[in-house]
Design a protein that fits this description.
By secondary structure, the chain is of the alpha/beta class. The chain has 2 domains: 332 residues, 3-Layer(aba) Sandwich (Collagenase (Catalytic Domain)), CATH 3.40.390; 240 residues, Neutral endopeptidase , domain2 (Neutral endopeptidase, domain 2), CATH 1.10.1380.10. The protein is built from 29 helices and 12 strands. A hairpin with a 2-residue loop joins strand 10 and strand 11. It starts with a strand and ends in a 21-residue tail after the last helix.
């Protein structure tokens, strides 16, 4: 689970950020509980806070909490997700027992029952996939190949952001406002085509990467062999060679994170001229994009290279590749040999997870992912009280006001840039809990006896929903996360935030806890997402969501100087022996952590309305605030999973995010942090972004 940045629809809807009145503060204070909130039993008080604040806050929990055999990591997000899963299970039990025959309840019941019934899946063998495999086998030329590739395209980009984008299809399609065309929704074309998590898995000389490549090739061979494919060993070699060429064509993650780099608008004619090799008419027609005349070529440097590979690589290699990825993407609803092989590679080899989750849990989560709004509406109706929504909305208002005050107080920023920044924070559209409207699932066919078809139909239905937005007015209230997801997101092109209901529980939010806990935990999360509007990517977008330079050169230079200090700070952390964090890759998330924590601390102090914070359990308000932040980042990783996130993810591992406190002045007196301690930073070395 991640807190992340996604570039999506711009918004013109404004929520005023103003100083909360005394009466509003009093009401907010009255609603909050008095419990301590934090978990004192998690702490390891033998650790000096100034040496390792993560271990001080979470060390005993880390020592005493084993990672379940079916998990690659655990932590605050895992704890919240356990409650989400428990609630969803009770909800599904109720729905299934009612034996629904129509409506969204029937979709939920049918999807779950078909996915859960592995006996039926095993008996069916490859029969559900036969039409797909026969179609691939019948491809006779590059025209038909282009159409086949187009037919596989889906809106399967990572729902969090382009930086973490990954699709096995040759291209990903994503529909939103164009980066260079404010107000106009375009289909984005994004690079894909690989089965490993990132291009560096194919290209790195690291012995661990080489070992992973060997195991991936063996996995490809196993899948093809189980499918009765001719010459599975030779085909696996051809697929590996092709995917290595695809990986070489990819832009780097750092390039993907550069929105300016992705603001490339190509007409249909330019697409065909700049990227010859594919029969674009055939591909776009099969993808339902035949009438689209304009595209955002987000990975503009890789698209021509991928297209050229379609022309230059032998047809059989592409047929091998299509066959494998068809099976690989559907392995979870294929017979046991496919399911087991997929788990052994993707979960055990890549993540270090030794044991599969029970099938009922997998069925529950697969249904929730496939039918997000159907499950989401039922979930919030049952489990998300109006009182929690109101309290979080009050905290959001206070945090926006705190952020505005901090912008006004910045000494190095010119009045013109401040005015633009204030306008942007005033216009942020904040969604708490769930969207204002729900998807209509009319026409989606989900049956109780074909999990393979259900999974395909749900993905195709979602894709068609997304491409139907092309050329239509933007919905400023569109959500990009379902309510039953433990996460939060900033949407810079939309200038909006989503806080799903499922994250609004402990260890992030507790209506019975006092303000120190809630501002330290969920408040920092809210501040984090607000701050994404002003990180190195979000700062490129104005209040309307248009990508526009609203900075003076001197202001942006000052901002980048602070960002570089933070980049260096995180690059110094060592996750595993010899494996340091990539501060450049994680810079946006780190900026959001620093700025969000600072803004939330200020909002917390304002919420006290001039009164002293109570001491609870022997801990001051400031101590509880910072401990709540660190405990929300409680985490324990298997080494394989930790290695993967360091190499491929734009988020630093949780334990390092907890150390963000070292940049906040108030943390030092709260825990008597002194020079010479490992986390101590001199005042001029503490990063002060947006405050």
């Amino acid at each position: 689970m991640k807190r992340a940045l996604l570039f999506v629809v711009a918004s013109a809807f404004a929520l005023a950020a103003c100083n909360t009145s005394t009466s509003e503060n009093a009401a907010q204070e009255q609603k909050q509980g008095t419990d301590i909130g934090i978990q004192p039993s998690w702490m390891d008080k033998s650790v000096v806070p100034g040496n390792d604040f993560f271990s001080y806050a979470d060390g005993t929990w880390v020592k005493n909490t084993p990672i379940p055999a079916d998990r690659s990591r655990i932590g605050g997000f895992y704890i919240a997700d356990q409650l989400r899963e428990k609630n969803t299970r009770a909800l599904f039990d109720q729905i299934i027992k009612s034996n629904p025959t129509s409506g969204t309840d029937a979709l939920i019941a049918n999807y779950y029952n078909a996915y859960f019934n592995t006996d039926a899946i095993d008996r069916a063998g490859l029969a559900p996939a036969k039409a797909d495999l026969d179609a691939i086998n019948g491809i006779a030329d590059k025209h038909q190949l282009s159409a086949a590739i187009g037919g596989t395209l889906r809106s399967d980009t990572d729902p969090l952001n382009a930086t973490n984008f990954h699709t096995e299809n040759l291209f990903g399609i994503f529909v939103t406002q164009g980066l260079a065309t404010p107000g106009e929704q375009l289909p984005y074309i994004m690079q894909g085509g690989i089965g490993l998590p990132d291009a560096q898995y194919y290209l790195s000389a690291d012995p661990k990467m080489s070992d992973t490549r060997g195991k991936y090739k063996a996995y490809v061979q196993t899948i093809l062999q189980d499918a009765g494919y001719p010459d599975p060993q030779g085909a696996a070699g051809r697929i590996m060679d092709l995917e290595t060429k695809i990986a070489k064509a990819h832009e780097t993650r750092e390039q993907s994170e550069d929105f300016k780099n992705g603001a490339q608008v190509w007409t249909r004619q330019q697409l065909e001229q700049k990227a010859p090799g594919i029969d674009w008419a055939a591909l776009l027609g099969a993808a339902g994009l035949g009438s689209a005349q304009k595209f955002d070529a987000y990975h503009y440097a890789s698209i021509p290279k991928l297209s050229a590979l379609v022309a230059s690589e032998p047809l059989q290699n592409w047929k091998d590749w299509l066959t494998f990825h068809t099976l690989n993407q559907q392995a979870n609803v294929l017979p046991k040999p496919f399911r087991d092989a997929s788990f052994a590679f993707y979960s055990t080899q890549l993540q270090g997870t030794p044991q599969q989750r029970p099938r009922d849990a997998l069925a529950l989560n697969a249904t929730s992912n496939a039918l997000q709004d159907a499950v989401g509406k039922a979930y919030v109706d049952k489990y998300f009280p109006a009182s929690s929504k109101a309290e979080i909305e009050g905290m959001v208002k206070n945090l926006k006001a705190a952020f505005a005050r901090r912008v006004k107080a910045i000494g190095w920023m010119s009045p013109a840039t401040k005015q633009e920044a204030l306008k942007k924070v005033e216009n942020i559209v904040v969604g708490v809990g769930y969207p204002d409207s729900w998807r209509d699932y009319s026409g989606l066919q989900i049956v109780a006896n074909n999990a393979y078809a259900n999974q395909k139909n749900a993905a195709l239905w979602e894709y068609r929903h997304q491409i139907s937005k092309i050329g239509k007015p933007m919905d400023p209230h569109e959500w990009w996360m379902p309510p039953q997801l433990v996460n939060a997101v900033n949407l810079p092109v939309q200038n909006a935030l989503n806080f799903p209901a499922a994250i609004l529980v402990k260890p992030f939010f507790d209506p019975n806890a006092d303000a120190a806990f809630n501002y330290g935990a969920i408040g920092a999360t809210i501040g984090h997402e607000i701050s994404h509007s002003f990180d190195t990517g979000g700062a490129l977008f104005d209040a309307s969501g248009a990508m526009r330079n609203w900075w003076t050169p001197a202001d942006f230079a000052n901002f980048q100087k602070q960002a570089q200090m933070l980049e260096d700070q995180f690059s110094a952390y060592e996750a595993l022996p010899g494996l340091h964090l990539n501060g450049k890759l994680t810079i946006n998330e780190n900026i959001a952590d620093v700025a969000g924590l600072g803004a939330s601390y200020e909002a917390y102090k304002a919420s006290l309305n001039g009164k002293p914070a109570p001491v609870i359990g022997g801990l001051t308000g400031d101590q509880r605030f910072f401990l709540a932040f660190a405990q929300s980042w409680a985490a324990k990783w298997r080494p394989e999973a930790l290695r993967q996130i360091v190499l491929t993810n734009e988020h630093a591992p949780d334990q390092f995010r907890a150390q963000t406190v070292r940049n906040i002045d108030a943390w030092y007196p709260a825990f008597n942090v002194k020079p010479g301690q490992k986390l101590y930073l001199a005042p001029n070395q503490r990063v002060k972004i947006w405050g």
